[in-house]
Every structure is written in C-alpha cells, then in structure tokens.
Design a protein that fits this description.
The chain is an alpha+beta fold. Helix content is 55%, strand content 11%. Strands 2-1-3-4 form a 4-stranded antiparallel sheet. The relative contact order is 0.12.
Amino acid sequence: MPLWEIGLRASLVYLLLIVLLRAIPKRNAGHISPNDMLTLILVGTLGADAITGDSTSIGDMTLMIGLVLGWGYLLDLAEYRLPWMRRWLRDKPAPLIENGRMVRANMRKEMVTEEEIMAVLRKGGVDNISQVRFACIEADGEISLSLKAQSSTPTGESQGIAGS
C-alpha cells in the first residue's frame, strides 16, 4: 500500500472517530478526554497488530502509530491555542441541579439517574437537595457540587428534617 494511502486512511479514520466519540455521554467517557481515549486505543491496537504480525510491514504500522500520535498532539495543541476548537472538542459542564431542582432534560441527555445524583449528594455530606445551588456533570464525567450559603440559624427544613 502506498504511504500516501496509509497516511490518508489513518488520518480520516482518526478524525471520523473523534467526531463519533463526541456523541458519547460524558459519564461513559470516564476521566479521559475523547481525543486521549482514542489515541490510546488506536496506538494499542496498532501496536498489537505490529507485534503479532497482522500488518503488512513494521514500517506501515510505525507510520500509522506516528500519525495517530501526531493527530492527538495537534488536536491537543489546537484545543489549547484556539478557543473555538476547545469549545468543539471538549464537552462543557452540564447542570444537573439548579437552585435545588433537578434538571431532568440534562439528566436524560447525560444518562444520569436520580439515584446517582442522590449518591453524590450523600458523599458530599448533603442531606437535602434544596441545599444545592447547582451540580454539574463535568467534561470528565464527575459530578461537582456548589452548595447554597447556609443561614446562621438553621431550620429543620434546611437540615433535611421534615416536619420540624
């Protein structure tokens, strides 16, 4: 296979997969960016093919691995230097709770259940959702919390105690 064809195929597949990975909800991507995840998977796969001899030549595999690593570096550099590229390649935080109320549309989009949110609140020491100013699912899939300022004289309701 000619080198230009290897380069073109590797580049097109890499860029197509980056676009497809944008469709994955944040919580499924884990703590790694889609670009980094794809680079690791492809380099591992290409490396395994080169080791087991499934490729046409070591030179072809080296070229493909180099292209994948190069594209990963160039996209990271573009994200750093070009704000419009960063907005396109990186997910934005999505609010799951605003002013003590769950944002159901974002929960559906990110496939986060009420039980998962409540578990995060408990781990954060929050007894009642009304204490939460906002909670967001971050680009890495983690849920962050911002609590409302507490009054100096807590009431039973603000402490999550019903019927006081």
